[in-house]
């Protein structure tokens, strides 16, 4: 009943229908009505009962920069919705609880949210799905990719690395606490050499060795590299040797945490930990 008259609200910018028992037919009716309201930028339909078709219909409302469909298990549904939204996204974040956030547009005009099935992070299988998404869907505006703590593992990281070069505008990449091993870290390093816009890389709490840490340090566009939380034995010293010519400040604290600020203008900070944490 409400949907039948929404089109009369010609100046509407924000609509919140969360936790209202929407089912697929009523959500489709809302989606149809909203296509006529070009001023609408934000829609919250959390904690309802959508299916894939109705979620996709809402995502297709082209005026939206913020769409919240969290709190529903759409099974495979989030992936087609992500596929639809990714070309408009400047940032993509997936956390350990399966919450997905896509920031729309270069100016961060809005954020769309959804939840992966099961309420868990990507894991290896989800990483393969994301790799396929990056392969098939252009993401020309994506400047930030944050996948910290998703338990992706070496195979998932290697699959993702094969398609990172498509993210030609990427500036920041966070793969911390994801089970990277030396071969998968080397695959990431190889991919990142082609992305000249990348300035920040966080690979804390993984399983790198000296060769893979040096390969990542050799990505010349980086001003911030974080390899803390790993005992590289003698490894930090060659990495410091590599980064020192670009550093304007060097700090080593009592816990062995090393920080090198890059460039006179302090454009970024690289971090590592001395062996033994002292």
UniProtKB/TrEMBL annotation:
It comes from Cryptomonas curvata. Signal peptide: none annotated. InterPro entries: Leu-rich_rpt (IPR001611), LRR-containing_regulator (IPR052201), LRR_dom_sf (IPR032675). The keyword Repeat applies. It comes from the Eukaryota. This is Uncharacterized protein. Keywords: Repeat.
